[in-house]
Specification:
The chain is of the alpha+beta class. It contains twelve helices and 17 strands. It has three domains: 99 residues, no CATH class; 87 residues, Phosphorylase Kinase, domain 1 (2-Layer Sandwich); 174 residues, Aminoglycoside 3'-phosphotransferase, Chain: A, domain 2.
């Protein structure tokens, strides 16, 4: 990730300081430039002046004694780099043959307050603004474009020259940046995938192949631009707020059922190998890191290895069908977030609603089925899908530090018959 200067504007115009060698008696100011080179200056030098006003890969203070780094930090209130910039520092030091401690000896967590704009240093894990007491985001937030690759930025500039970022909607867990832009008197949504992202490709496929029944009704965003290789897409902006922020009304669930039926009805194919692949995937999850107790793991392995693997009918599915991906505007439901869209059995889109919503509100289930039609959960594979959903939720949430989701997955497993 690259970091742009976020400090006082007047400091950007200072003349560059003399570039020096390391001072063994005190720390030096350093930056890692975009070519990955270490640049040093006397400690009281401004980082932005040392960088010539340009973006950097890292910045902070460093002490080098006899060819060894004894102290190094990301202390730069001009760039406010995240501790995640350490790999860029390590590469620069390795290139010079300088021994180093393998990480920052002092790692500083910077956050910008979304309410008052104050730059904060987070201490003792207390994500509260020191000036106005507002809650600070868990994700580094000084430059919403920072996570984008050079190629993604080039495409964004070509698609929407001069566009302004007005809001960062990124969740902060998946390797996907979600930004709301203002451009040409309208708002747009841009999604950019990181190196490990595999959701953008699914989302692009869904936009190009499956969303027309919704976009023609203005019930889903329309794709404006997309680049599979760069993992970047741009769509229209839909007004509204998440259904999670509204009272759970049966009318919303009826509409959600109607929309899901439109998605599922577009095409279908029979897959003779789907069940086997899903079984293998879940056995691998159980072999990986999680907090499912040993007795439950043994029971699940016995259960999965004994399941039949019949052919199943696959349809286009959303993959995360629940109120957090429904927008409400003027009492109308629209759909967002297609990063998990894929061909699956229809009943898989019922899994999360069954556990989270229908278990305590049968009226919502009745309304949903009124909109959707015949219940696909009557099929034999629905129970197997429910078990897989529980395993996947518990394992994924543990891996990403999402304790609430992990607890939900563990409750689902505890409730299996």
């Amino acid at each position: 990730m690259r970091y742009r200067y976020v400090g006082p504007a007047g400091l950007r115009d200072q003349p560059p300081p003399p570039v020096t060698g390391p001072d063994p008696d005190e720390a030096s100011t350093y930056v890692i430039d975009l070519d990955g080179r270490l640049r040093l200056a006397p400690r009281r030098s401004e980082h932005v002046a040392l960088a010539g006003g340009r973006d950097v890969l890292a910045a902070g203070e460093i002490t080098i004694v006899d060819g060894r780094v004894t102290e190094v930090s990301n202390q730069s209130t001009g760039y406010c780099p995240d501790p995640d910039c350490w790999p860029a520092v390590a590469r620069a030091l390795d290139r010079l043959g300088l021994a180093h401690p393998g990480g920052f000896t002092t790692a500083i967590v910077f956050r910008r307050c979304p309410d008052c704009g104050e730059r904060n240093i987070v201490r003792d894990g207390d994500f509260i603004c020191a000036l106005c007491d507002a809650e600070l985001p868990q994700r580094w937030n000084f430059d919403p474009l920072a996570p984008l690759s050079d190629r993604q930025r080039e495409l964004l500039d070509a698609w929407f020259p001069g566009a302004e970022v007005v809001h960062d909607h990124s969740w902060g867990v998946a390797a996907t940046t979600v930004l709301e832009l203002a451009y040409d008197n309208r708002h747009l949504i841009v999604k950019a995938g990181g190196e490990t992202d595999h959701h953008i490709a699914r989302e692009l496929h869904a936009h190009r192949n499956w969303l027309r029944p919704w976009t023609t009704r203005n019930r889903a965003p329309r794709l404006l631009h997309g680049d599979d290789q760069a993992k970047l897409l741009a769509t229209t902006y839909l007004p509204g707020s998440l259904a999670l922020d509204h009272e759970a009304e049966p009318s919303f669930y009826r509409q959600a059922g109607e929309l899901l039926a439109l998605l599922h009805a577009q095409t279908a194919t029979v897959d003779a190998d789907f069940e086997r692949r899903e079984n293998e995937k879940n056995l691998l999850l159980l072999n990986g890191p999680h907090r499912i107790d040993a007795a439950t793991v043994r029971r699940l392995r016995d259960l999965i290895t004994g399941w039949p693997t019949p052919p199943v009918t696959l349809v286009p599915t959303h993959g995360d069908w629940q109120p957090r991906n429904w927008l409400i505007h003027d009492d109308t439901v629209s759909i967002i977030d297609f990063g998990r869209a894929a061909m699956r059995p229809a009943w898989t889109d019922f899994n999360r609603l069954t556990v989270q919503d229908f278990s305590t509100r049968p009226d919502l289930e009745e309304a949903f089925l009124l909109g959707y039609g015949p219940d696909p959960r009557a099929a034999d594979g629905s129970y197997r899908s429910h078990v897989r959903e529980a395993i996947g939720t518990a394992c994924w949430a543990f891996a990403h530090g999402q304790e609430a989701f992990e607890a939900q997955g563990l409750r689902m497993l505890a409730g299996l018959r």
